[in-house]
Amino acid sequence: MSFNKLNKILQKNSLLIPVFLLTIFFVFSFIYFLSLASSSNKNISYANAEAYTELYFTPTQTVKKNIFLINNLKFSFAIHNVESNDITYTYQIIFSKNGKRIILKQNNVFVENNQTKVLVESIPVTKDYSNGKITVLILNNNQQITLHLPNAS
């Protein structure tokens, strides 16, 4: 190809080269800034993550009407520790009905960080528990869950 032919091609497509060079510049700049953003996110540690405790009745927990025909009220609940350290939780099991509250049990349980402890409770049925509520209260963080009891009849 002669110099004259090359010169004619460049004159006809004079905008093509600057547009091509600008496109390459923007693509490489975009890739560079993406790499900076992803490398800055790698410095996030789990210590900065939100710490919390999950408290819930186990999924298989059901209370049936005939629960009052047996001698014990049985239920289970779980404490999942996501507090970034091991914790000894103090919990209470409270029965309430018609505005009255009775602490049935208070206990401590140790749960390691990122672990779940399932506790099975058996409360002797010495009162009319029908239409009442059983509440599990964690005293460490004032977190609670409530199990509404059915009518015994």
Topology record:
Elements: H1 3-12, H2 16-41, E1 52-57, E2 72-82, E3 87-97, E4 100-111, E5 116-124, E6 133-138, E7 143-148
Q: Describe it for me?
A:
This protein has 153 residues and is α+β, with helices and mostly antiparallel strands. Helices cover 24% and strands 40% of the residues. The chain is built from two helices and seven strands; from the N terminus they run ααβββββββ. It has helices at residues 3-12, 16-41, and strands spanning 52-57, 72-82, 87-97, 100-111, 116-124, 133-138, 143-148. The strands form two sheets. A four-stranded antiparallel beta sheet has the order 4-3-6-7, with no helix packed on it. Strands 1-2-5 form a three-stranded antiparallel beta sheet, with no helix packed on it. The relative contact order is 0.17. Residues 41-46 have low confidence and may be disordered.
